[in-house]
Amino acid sequence: MIFKRVGDGRPYPDHGTTLSMWAELAPRPVRLDELVTVKRTLDLETLLATDSTFFGDLFPHVVEWKGEYYLEDGLHRALRAALQQRPVIHARVLLLD
Questions:
Q1: How much is the pTM?
Q2: Would you state the CATH architecture of domain 5-39+54-96?
Q3: Strands (E), 1-76
Q4: I want to staple 62 with a disulfide (CB 3.0 to 4.6 A). Which of 21, 27, 86, 91 is the partner?
């Protein structure tokens, strides 16, 4: 199993965090098997693209809510890490109360 589970949508409340606010969070290691995805599908073309992070944040965005880690942005990067047999990714983690 790559992820803890595959979710369908964001179960946590809207946090309104902007890209510049995400950028202020220092990346930290997160285990892939602790992540719950918020997307059920992925685009294979995006997964295989060499420049998929060219216009976005280099680090995935994870929301910690009620003791769970939700992968909000960066599913393709996390899956690429899993395919390279890396059990951990560096992500920006936002803690919601």
A1: 0.86
A2: Alpha-Beta Complex (3.90)
A3: 5-6, 28-31, 35-37, 61-65, 68-73
A4: 91
Domain boundaries, the chain: 5-39+54-96
Q: What's the token pair of residue 80?
A: 């690429």
Give me the residues of the chain with pLDDT under 70, please.
43, 46-57
Amino acid at 47: L
Cβ neighbourhood burial of 97 (10 Å; 0-12, 13-18, 19+) = exposed
Tens of pLDDT, residue by residue over 41-52, are 776 776 666 655
Residue 32: strand, helix, or coil:
helix
**Secondary structure (3-state) at 53:** coil
- Best CA proximity match to 5, nearest among 70, 96, 86, 67: 70
3-class state of residue 70 by DSSP: strand
